[in-house]
Amino acid sequence: MTEAPRIKSLQTVFLEKPPCCMELCPANSDYFIVGTYNLQINADNAKDADTTELSALDAPKADAEPSEQQRDGSLVVYRIKNGKM
To answer: How many whole angstroms from its chain centre is CA 77?
Structure first.
């Protein structure tokens, strides 16, 4: 079995929020869009990632309303010209 050729990065871009999707522009291949998505963690639903059990004090109260999760994101348009973004 032959090994696939390795792909080498030519340029790296760091986004402000985590990327979630990428779409190429079929009408003009010089452009592409990167979508970002970020779920905000608030004090009501923030727990340590390694904590799996809830104590009686940590359990949600029956009459307490759940807090709404906040999220944000962006669409970033890039253009490739002469091999550079």
So the answer is: 16
Buried (b) or exposed (e) across 2-21, using 16+ Cβ within 10 A? Answer: eeeeeeeeeeeeeeeeeeee
Query: What does pTM read for this prediction?
Result: 0.59
The H or E element spanning position 19 is strand 19-24
What is the Cα–Cα distance from 13 to 71, expressed in whole angstroms?
Answer: 22
Please compute Rg for the chain using Cα positions: 21
Q: Determine the length of the chain.
A: 85
Quote the tokens at residue 82: 């002469």
The predicted-structure confidence for 23-63, as pLDDT tens digits, reads as follows 998 999 999 999 999 988 776 555 544 444 545 555 555 56
Q: List all residues 6 or more positions away from 84 whose beta carbon is below 8 Å from its beta carbon.
A: 11
